[in-house]
Amino acid sequence: MIWRKYSIDTTVEAEEILAAFLMEELGIEGVEFSDQRGITEEEAKTMFVDLYPEGDDSIDDATLSFYVEVLSKEDKERRKEEVEKAFSDPLVDHSYTLNSSNIFTEEECDEILRALKKELENMSSYCNIGKGSISQSETEDKDWMNAWHDFFHSFSVGDFFICPSWEEVPKEAEGKILLSVDPGTTFGTGQHETTKLCLQALGKYGKGKERVLDLGTGSGILGIAALKMGAKEVFATDLDPLCEGAVEENLLKNTLSKDQMTLFIGNILGQEKEELAFRKSCEEKPFSLVLANILAPVIIALAPEVPKFLEEGGIFIASGILEEKAEEVRKTLKAVKEWEILDELKEGEWHAFVCRKKV
């Protein structure tokens, strides 16, 4: 996957005309202005700051940039289908949906450049376009991933110690359950408060749980943590098919076989044939532990359903709940007769609940 930046060396006079052309005629979503203009009185009225950057209106040079993601025709069509599927599901938080803006094939990028050059030539007849030159730069996903080496380091969470593959395991990891996880561009590493809360709860309430269900697995870190604690079977679900590679990679990093975790791509509350079949299998052979590091609206929808997937006395760990949603989740859990709330954990603005299915 390639991310490309196009930059046009132009003038203050021409940049807004160019921006309008890019967005209205070429379908570019969002552009970046870079010039030395000062803030006008009208612009100042819309800004809630006390000090404004000083400009120099005598400098007419400006740079207008826009960004595109370059995919093959097949990958572009696949991305479109994945995004449409995600947006059709009311339980998906769309702020985390795959990128759907400014996606073009190489051929389409060539067409954009031709149209842009033609427009610059046309504009030069009625306004100062400056140099009017176009430059481009590219960044591949692997460049973003390598950048993580500078600031992602090992850390401890409850009974667990998380260490990236490029670091030596330090002495402070002794006595902890070691998890080897590397950052990626799509899924988490355990650093986020919601995952930390899940790991803390897992260390306290997950001992002796042999059959585990991880809802919304992402990188697979919670399921892997359960396996490292001694779970015999882990079943995991996620809506995003891209998680398959992340889960398999993280299993191997932790010297676990991909056969030790069964991954289902789909919604356990969905109505597709495969989703209904998976749900039925979970009800017929219940789990001793269910993990859900998702979002409050999804947890609220899951609350009355998860008891069907748990054996009596089984544990449900739910995380991903913001402060303003905590009371609503708490009330929902209390309203489900099968639940006994054992614990509530909090870190920053995030909450997690631990429930037990009543015997």
List the helices and strands and how they pair.
Elements: E1 2-11, H1 12-24, E2 32-35, H2 41-44, E3 61-70, H3 73-87, E4 103-104, H4 106-123, E5 133-140, H5 141-147, E6 155-157, E7 160-163, E8 177-180, H6 193-205, E9 211-215, H7 221-228, E10 233-238, H8 243-253, E11 261-265, H9 273-284, E12 287-293, H10 296-302, E13 310-322, H11 323-335, E14 339-347, E15 350-357
Parallel strand pairs: 3-4, 7-8, 9-10, 9-12, 10-11, 12-13
Antiparallel strand pairs: 1-3, 1-5, 2-3, 6-7, 13-15, 14-15
Q: Could you explain the architecture of this structure?
A:
The chain is of the alpha/beta class and 359 residues long. It has two domains: 2-145, no CATH class; 190-357, 3-Layer(aba) Sandwich (Rossmann fold), CATH 3.40.50.150. The chain is 34% helix and 27% strand. The chain contains eleven helices and 15 strands. The protein has helices at 12-24, 41-44, 73-87, 106-123, 141-147, 193-205, 221-228, 243-253, 273-284, 296-302, 323-335, and strands spanning 2-11, 32-35, 61-70, 103-104, 133-140, 155-157, 160-163, 177-180, 211-215, 233-238, 261-265, 287-293, 310-322, 339-347, 350-357. The strands form three sheets. It has a seven-stranded mixed β-sheet, sandwiched between helices. Strands 1, 2, 3, 4 and 5 form a five-stranded mixed β-sheet that branches. It is elongated, with a radius of gyration of 25 Å.
